[in-house]
Amino acid sequence: MTEADLLAIRQAIEQQIAAFQVNDAAAAFSQAAPSIQVEFGTAENFVRMVEAAYPPVYRPRSVVFEDLLRVEGLPAQQVMLMDQSGQLIRATYIMQQQRMGDWKIAGCYLTPIGYSEA
């Protein structure tokens, strides 16, 4: 994995989070891997799912990038998120390199950390 790959992975995640923050469904959807796009069909369906099932990803208060791991051979970027209530959640983004070399988000798993700012 090159430094350029690491940067591209981070940028894909940052761009998706930024798109969620400003309600830009098309931009958020564009960072999803083709398999995710096929599964949800439209940007609006995708954003509704993220808002309902992944609120810390949809509207984080803070974002801190952590280690890049490998999960079943795929790069997995760990990101510490603080949700709107002050809870810490580790998001593990499964990344997939596309034919043209760009990186897309192929999945995201949330793990509560057990810390609350409250």
Automatic annotation (TrEMBL):
SUPFAM superfamilies: NTF2-like. It comes from the Bacteria. Pfam families: DUF4864. It comes from Phormidesmis priestleyi Ana. This is DUF4864 domain-containing protein.
